[in-house]
Amino acid sequence: MAQFPDYVDVEYDAGEGESPDEYPTLEGKIEQAIDVTRRGLEEYEQPAVMWTGGKDSTLTLYFVTEVAAEFGFEVPPAIFIDHFQHFDEIHDFVDRWAEQWGVDVHYASNDDIGAYVEENALDPGDEIPVEALDGHNRHHVREILEYEEDTFPYLLDTYVGNHLLKTVALNDALREYEIDGVLSGVRWDEQEARAGETFFSPRHDPDTYPPHDRVHSILQFAERDVWDAFWQYVVPETVPEFPEGHVPRSATDLPAGLEWADIPVSPKYVAGYRSLGSEVSTDKTTDEPAWLQNLEGTTERAGRAQDKEDLMERLRDLGYM
């Protein structure tokens, strides 16, 4: 593969200083998403899609498959980070729809930590000795994170836990599969640390991560726009029996003959979750389906552990999404 980024010709400042307000209609947001996705599939030799099973990454994957079909590209593989603390329903959702859509999924995980957790029957929150890790992980803990404690908690939404279980797993997968462009479902309005992102965001420091770019095709979507896109496009185009224009008004409001397993929307959103993190660090405040909640007047990530939310800017610099 050619030395990155010599063969890539994208505008790294595209979208700089913008917000969802610059794209006032859903159609305009979709047009921009298609354009960014097309460039992502054109410019990179080995692209991949970050897929968490959440609404944003699933919408991103939808645009990728649609654009690939329209313009004659191969559908790139998806990378699913298995951090060992997922809701079981997330695994089931990803497996089902990967098969349905014909998407090849690379499951990335930090197997050194996974093996230690299994051998010692650890539960989330239990302590892991730094010296029990292999040299690769110890390097990240001591040299990159500059963490000085003897142990760290086996928790996803903490500084050390998030980096080892997600970022290290992701970067190892990017290196293994020689990925040069990662299509990711990041949005400007989702979190303060992401408000300054651009549509093509460079990650070129070889001392921090395998050099690559992040391609952010849905930056311009607000949370409400994501759900509008699902009910107006993703669901009716994926499920032929689903009537165009129908938006379920409750968890039981589905057209006759359909079940939620037939709909490409995670069951956790149906149950009231608005943001999907780990099983032990994500809560919900209501049983109302996510798209029916007060999206404009409440915080989307309020149910997520704040340890990670407060560190998002530094985690981004280390390669987190």
Task: List the main descriptive attributes of the protein structure presented here.
6-stranded mixed sheet, 321 residues, two-stranded antiparallel sheet, 10 helices, alpha/beta
Question: How would you explain this protein's 3D organization?
Answer:
The strands form two sheets. Strands 3-2-1-6-8-7 form a six-stranded mixed β-sheet. Strands 4-5 form a two-stranded antiparallel ribbon. Helix 1 crosses helix 2 (55-71). The model has no long low-confidence stretch (mean pLDDT 92). It is α/β, with parallel strands linked by helices. The two termini are 24 Å apart. The chain is built from ten helices and eight strands. Helix 3 links the parallel strand 2 and strand 3. Helices cover 36% and strands 9% of the residues.
Which strand-content bin applies to the residues?
5-15%
Question: Which stretches are low in confidence, meaning pLDDT under 50 for 5 or more residues running?
Answer: none
Residues in helix, %: 25-40%
The shape is globular
Structural class: alpha/beta
Give the biggest beta sheet: 6 strands, mixed
Please trace the helix and strand order, writing H or E for each element: HEHEHEHEHEHEEEHHHH
Task: State the total count of DSSP E strands.
Answer: 8
Using only C-alpha atoms, the radius of gyration works out to 19 Å
Give me the number of helical elements. 10
Ends apart, CA distance between termini? 24 Å
Mean pLDDT: 92
Q: Give, in spatial order, the strands making up the sheet with the most strands.
A: 3-2-1-6-8-7
